[in-house]
Amino acid sequence: MKYHKLPHSSLEVSKICLGTMTFGEQNTKQEAFEQLDFAVERGINFIDTAEMYPVPPKQNTQGLTESYIGDWLSHSDKRQKVILATKVAGPRNVPYIRENMSLDRRNIHQALDDSLTRLKTDYIDLYQLHWPQRKTNCFGQLNYPYPNDNEEVTLIETLEALNELIKAGKIRYIGVSNETHGA
User: Under CATH, domain 3-136+151-176 is a member of which superfamily?
Assistant: First the structure.
């Protein structure tokens, strides 16, 4: 397996990342364990998940992916061998996760604590915003009408909340998953 340093970090990640968004929907817990074992045995050390997984998102399955990974981590004792990435869902219409999905301090802290519980770990190597606070064209819609409205939660507030969690030792590095920019 080939590895490279994740830019602006000390994380050496495998060039192949195991995406897990089907664990709990298309994959059983046993299949998830087998896939995780298979990947790690072949040198993959980068595992990506999110609080809203599996997809398609549903209230009755939300969080199962992280729970399966957490059970595998505690069963396999391989936490120190993997770079674990997860995501806070952000401002989308998924009120069964949290009533208000803004990327404010309260929501980010709650989301991370819930993910840490499901993942059965004390820290996340790479914690990402699944989407930025502002409305974006996440999936490349042609002629997307970018709104000119001001969001109530500023990027500064979001970054300050994430920085608090870095200082607390719960997050090593931060990022954003689905980001694009307007014309």
Answer: NADP-dependent oxidoreductase domain (3.20.20.100)
Structure tokens at 46: 């980068």
Q: How far is CA 47 from each of CA 78, 85, 178, rounded to the nearest angstrom?
A: 12, 6, 17
Q: Quick one: pLDDT at residue 155? A: 87
For 105-123, letters b (16+ CB in 10 Å) and e give bebbbebbebbbebbbbeb
- Beta strands (DSSP E) in 23-170 are 46-48, 83-88, 124-129
Q: Would you state the pLDDT for residue 147?
A: 63
| 69-107 pLDDT tens trace | 999 999 999 999 999 999 999 887 688 998 888 999 999
Residue written as token pair 């995780």: 36
Catalytic residue among 53, 68, 127, 173: 53
Contacts of 7-10 with C-beta under 8 Å, sequence gap 24+, read 8/173, 9/126, 9/172, 9/173
The per-residue DSSP string of 138-160 comes to: TT--TT-----PPPSS-HHHHHH
Tell me if residue 53 is catalytic: yes
Angle at 24 between CA 35 and CA 112, to 5 degrees: 95
- Rounded to two decimals, the pTM is 0.89
